[in-house]
Structures are given as C-alpha cells and as structure tokens.
Amino acid sequence: MVYLFSLPLFLSCLILTAARPIPRATDYTGGTGQGTYYDTGLTSCGQTYTDSDLIVALSHLFYDSYPGATANPNDNPVCGKKLTAHYQGKSVTVTVADRCTGCAMYDLDFTPTGFQALSDLSVGRISGVVWAFDDSTSAGANPGSNTVPDASSDSSSDSDSTDTEDSDFSSAD
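Given the sequence above, the corresponding structure tokens read:
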C-alpha cells in the first residue's frame, strides 16, 4: 500500500521539477553581478590558460543560453569575446574563455590576475561588478551602443563562497 501511494507522489514531484523553465539572460550585452576568482586550466572554450591570463568565466546560465550556443561548449560564439568589468572606479578588460556553474546570471569568475585589477584577492568576492562586451556585435547589442549596463539590473546571488568555478573541463578547486 505504501508503494502505491509513493509512486504517484514521486511522479508528481518529478513532473513539477522538470517543468521549471531554464533561466535565460534578458540582456546579452552585459550586466551587473558579483565577481570571484578561480584557478584556471583547460577551459570550456577548449583552450588552456594560466592564472596570469586575463580571461573570465561567464555564468553557465548566460554561457549556455547565449545565441548560437550548441551542446559543444568549445563552439560557443561567446568564446573569445572581450568585455570590460568595472568595480569601485577600477576596470579590467578580459576575454571570455570559460563557464562558471556556481555563478548567478551576470556574475563573473576571473583569473586571480583579472580579479586583482579590481580588488585584493583577500576579499574573495565583490558585489556590484558592472560589465559590458567591448564590441557592438554581441548578441542583442544595439549597433553603435557600447554603454555600461545600469547597476540596478543586479541579478547576483548572496553567497559567501570565494571560488565558484566548476567548469565542465577545468580542474579548478
């Protein structure tokens, strides 16, 4: 009798869980979120980097839903795009090379060198990082527009973890 009751309950929970929509970015030109750093290596864009390289990992939510993305992360059209991140009067230009599974939609996970351009490594996590792609050819960009997104569009999460990178192909952590 217990098994007869458990199966319909299990199936109901499974259906409700599977029916949740996958979050998608509403703006593919940039955003506002948190910044963290991670130890690099082989990235989801298929290249190997070191911690001194100026690369960044985008949120898996942003990376996976970027227009033109396929099941092969190495072929994602966002790979190689340059963006500039701003934080408390400092800025750094980095190249997209990885995806971050622990990041909220507009969060960025930098190499230690990239993060240090914005803040001391001992801080670990910074909130209110405003960033935008450097070219007007990014998906959803208005031609000729290269403005920094409004800080009120912050979609970052409040987590105390320093290192949120969990790339499909890197051995971070």
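The longest helix spans residues 2-18. Try to locate this feature in the token string yourself.
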